[in-house]
């Protein structure tokens, strides 16, 4: 799920799976249910990552064809193994090189803020879709109810002002309802709609929550990797104290993504 200067954040497919993959798999079906696409359509998934959204399209939408693009070759290889029958290629979401109007739907999942130019990525999605077709995507609500990350960074930033450099709640302003709508309208799409996609995130105990932050892949794990052992341990305990914890050590958080869709005009 990567493009541009931040592609190193997502260079390891296995680490991404541990950190965000399970939540990605849970939100993709909600997104497709919201789209309610008819069968037999031509789909392109930009920033397909390890194939989470593509796999859900293949399983539930009966596509005529499905193409996934991602800049990370390792992700493309994983996606191709996961989603037989679809086509996957290394490619840039902001400049695909594909002919215009060749798809009924252009989608992306959890990638827009990682592209080198989000507005250009939206233009490219619109260019790829025939008149009357649809562009649709979703991103994490980093500044609000993506609580796995929000809880972490709210604590980290009180302890270290440098943590803000890694906080997508600050650094990805397009991942909010207003900017998403404005971006989609700016590239000429009509009938624009935005909705929240919400799922629960349950952890059996704190270590299950904390372990993915040690994988080095993703904004928060990248920040943790910069810390000394002493600072990391203090952060861990401060985060532990901040989380809502049940009597048996269980932790229940909310996870939200914002989704937007718009129609390509004649």
From TrEMBL:
It comes from the Bacteria. It holds the Pfam family Methyltransf_11. GO terms for molecular function: methyltransferase activity. One of its GO terms (biological process) is methylation. It is an enzyme of class 2 (transferase). Its EC number is 2.1.1.-. SUPFAM superfamilies: S-adenosyl-L-methionine-dependent methyltransferases. Residues 44-136 form the Methyltransferase type domain. Keywords: Methyltransferase, Transferase. InterPro entries: Methyltransf_11, Methyltransf_Superfamily, SAM-dependent_MTases_sf. This is Class I SAM-dependent methyltransferase. The lineage of its organism: Bacteria, Thermotogati, Deinococcota, Deinococci, Deinococcales.
């Amino acid at each position: 799920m990567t493009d541009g200067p931040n592609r190193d954040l997502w260079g390891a497919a296995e680490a991404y799976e541990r950190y965000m993959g399970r939540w990605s798999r849970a939100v993709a079906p909600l997104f497709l249910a919201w789209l309610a696409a008819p069968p037999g359509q031509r789909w392109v998934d930009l920033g397909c990552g390890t194939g989470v959204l593509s796999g859900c399209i293949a399983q539930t939408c009966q596509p005529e064809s499905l193409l996934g693009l991602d800049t990370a070759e390792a992700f493309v290889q994983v996606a191709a193994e996961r989603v037989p029958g679809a086509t996957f290629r290394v490619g840039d979401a902001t400049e695909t090189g594909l002919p215009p109007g060749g798809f009924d739907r252009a989608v992306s999942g959890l990638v827009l803020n990682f592209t080198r130019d989000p507005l250009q990525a939206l233009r490219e999605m619109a260019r790829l879709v025939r008149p009357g077709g649809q562009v649709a995507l979703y991103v994490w609500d980093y500044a609000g109810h993506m609580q796995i990350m929000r809880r972490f960074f709210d604590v980290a930033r009180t302890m270290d002002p440098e943590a803000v450099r890694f906080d997508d709640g600050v650094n990805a302003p397009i991942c909010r309802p207003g900017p998403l709508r404005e971006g989609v309208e700016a590239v000429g799409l009509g009938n624009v709609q935005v909705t929240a996609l919400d799922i629960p995130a349950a952890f059996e105990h704190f270590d299950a929550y904390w372990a993915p932050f040690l994988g080095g892949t993703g904004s928060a794990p990248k920040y943790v990797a910069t810390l000394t052992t002493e600072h990391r341990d203090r952060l861990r305990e401060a985060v532990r104290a901040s989380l809502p914890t049940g009597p048996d050590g269980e932790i229940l958080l909310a996870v939200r993504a914002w989704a937007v869709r718009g129609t390509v005009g004649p």
